[in-house]
Design goal:
The protein is 23% helix and 24% strand. The chain is α/β, with parallel strands linked by helices. Strands 3, 4, 5, 6, 7, 14 and 15 form a seven-stranded mixed sheet that branches. A six-stranded parallel sheet has the order 10-9-8-11-12-13, sandwiched between helices. A two-stranded antiparallel ribbon has the order 1-2. It is globular. The relative contact order is 0.15. NADPH dihydro-nicotinamide-adenine-dinucleotide phosphate (NDP) binds next to helix 1.
Amino acid sequence: VKLKHYAPAVLKETDMEVKSSEITLEVEEGSQDVLVKNFYLSCDPYMRHRLTGLDYSHHPSFKIGQVLEGFGVSKVVESANPNFKPGDYVSSWTKWEEYSVIPKGERLTIIDPSFAPLSYYLGALGMPGFTAYVGIYEILKPKKGETIFVSAASGAVGQMVGQLAREAGLYVVGSAGSQEKIDLLRNKLGYDAAFNYKEEEDHVAALKKYCPRGIDMYFENVGGKTLDAVIDNMNPFGRIAVCGLISQFGKEKKDGVSNLYKFISARITMQGFLQSDHLHLMPKFMELMAGYLKANKLVYFEDFADGLDNAPNAFCRMLSGSKIGKQIITIAKD
Ligand code: NDP
């Protein structure tokens, strides 16, 4: 799957194209390279920045004609690297293609297929789950009994935030874009309350209603008018972890914050973060997840698109919210 046109404002499926080309299924001896067969590819919002032709984020834009790349789950086919052997399952930084040569085997990690479904390494046990963990424990530092509000609550990150927050003894409130998602949040994902932000005219009033004791912590995934309404409802010494601002994607003029004074009167702290600054905590996170899996506590919803031909559509569905849970592209299975 290649980038066909830059899409600074609105991304369309036709801005990407699927092309066939032949590659040699071998690696050069002594190169340290690893040939992998890709099983699952991850659709992640940050990739949207890479389709704009603009270099305003910390992720450089793809070039026209470049094959898209991102997180994947793959199986080693051939290896010139002593750390990997054919048959190993790996979480990978790979290309949106059937087979990829990973130069020097960089960013490959061997994973255990008996631990959890392989696709979980792109979501619950992968970058999105880890993002939820970092945001909650490193940035927000919750105290039992506090109220946390989470936007894009049913997504790849949000569903993990909800479960971690519930385990931390918090009152957990979320918003998402459909009734089906609200039902999942309430009935399956441990949220105490949830609402469809598309059906609430007055976000300040909605938050007052669903967070009756005010908001102590906000896990920010969307920005825009949601952020403004949250600030109005923040309790003294409230904390905001700025994880993502998906409502601002493609906007030439980004929304600002109208009620900055509330930061002073309520002594609010707001901190942006990148999960990649905290990778030393990955073993601790995986240990926690192992406990959740063992206790049958982890619930995770995934939405699978079938094959590379459907990849451009899957990526647009992820951005628009038409999918449920973590958006994944299936390329192959064992
Ligand atoms: P999701 O699986 O949640 O997918 C994105 C969802 O955002 C959509 O499905 C949609 O769901 C919602 N959305 C889209 N547009 C809007 C809008 N205008 N207003 C409100 N909601 C909207 O994505 P992830 O869980 O993977 O990522 C969530 C956020 O976390 C993103 O902002 C991403 O950039 C950020 N992120 C940051 C990281 C970091 O290190 N800081 C790492 C990983 C992710 P809905 O139906 O609810 O509208």
